[in-house]
Amino acid sequence: MTTFQTVVLALIQGLTEFLPVSSSAHLILPSVLLGWPDQGLAFDVVLNFGTLSAVLIYFRHEISSMSRAWCYSLKSRKQTQDSKLAWWILFSTIPAAVIGFLLKDLVATYLRSGYVIAVTTLVFGLLLGWADSRGTFLKNEYQTGFKGAMIIGFAQVLALVPGTSRSGITITAALMLGLTREAAARFSFLMSIPIIAMASGYNLLQFVLSDQSVNWSGLMLGVVITFFSAILCIHVFLLILNKVGMLPFVIYRIFLSALLFYVLF
After folding, report:
1. Are 155 and 131 in contact (CB under 8 A)?
2. Which residues pair with 106 in a beta bridge?
3. What backbone phi and psi angles, to 5 degrees, belong to 59?
4. Which of 157, 174, 149 is nearest to 107 (CA)?
5. What are the start-end ranges of the E strands in the chain?
6. 215 in the Ramachandran plot: left (φ > 0), alpha (ψ -120 to 50) or beta?
7. Burial letters for 185-213: b for 16+ Cβ neighbours within 10 Å, e otherwise?
8. CA–CA dist 109, 161 (Å, integer)
């Protein structure tokens, strides 16, 4: 890839990974509209590392408190709200991790198409709007409960289908369970840590076992841009979420889906 292509794709990843708009729907646009080449496995590793670093840094205080509480719960068998949240996040990751591992080849072979992404971008965007309009907004993330966390975890499985949006579908499920918009987003972002870490590890293993050539300067540029754009995106999204709600993102997904249908059909 050229330097310009690297910058654009890194910005797309950083700005869309944590918004409920589907990063896969955006990453397909340059290849569909402009004929850009696939970014390759090494760049996938970099994008994952950049977004993972961003969410770890942004939520470093929460992660530190949850980690300490979780370790204490293992020794004392006593639970605090932070340890419960940590356990819920860990257990809620299992469905997507297991099903994703079992179905990764099926998804890669049959579902990574522009037509699928156009449909899922629209359908799950409308579902997000419905959940936001019907939400009660009564609970914070510490009131999710084990059952609620597992419901969100199984919803995350749907994000294996490109165009669904991992953050979009988990926020949708959280809103249906009565969480506030901010709590739904925070729970979704914290849930992303183990799943992105596993995806990064898997892609890194594939890369190590492959014989791809590496443009190290391009990769470093990509990870820096992805990191800063992702951390900015998280901050702004949480800042404006209660004021604007989900409607702007729903409308955006409808227009994005219409664009994809226009280009593909």
Report:
1. no
2. none
3. -105, 30
4. 157
5. none
6. beta
7. bbbbbbbbbbbbbbbbebbbeebeeeeee
8. 11
Q: Give the Å distances, CA to CA, from 170 to 67, 102, 206, 221.
A: 22, 21, 27, 30
Q: Taking the CA atoms of the chain, what radius of gyration do you get in angstroms?
A: 18
Token pair, residue 186, equals: 């925070």
Lowest mean pLDDT among 15-29, 102-116, 247-261: 102-116
Q: Phi and psi of 139, rounded to 5°?
A: -110, 150
- Give one DSSP letter per residue of 175-201, joined into a string: HHTTB-HHHHHHHHHHHHHHHHHHHHH
Which position has the token pair 């929460």?
62
Q: Helix or strand or coil: residue 139? A: strand
pLDDT at 38: 67
Residue keyed to tokens 């006593």: 78
**Block residue for tokens 């797309």:** 12
Global pTM value: 0.93
The whole-angstrom separation of Cα 188 and Cα 172 is 10
- Rounded distance, CA 159 to CA 170, Å? 9
pLDDT band at 21 (very low <50, low <70, confident <90, very high): very high
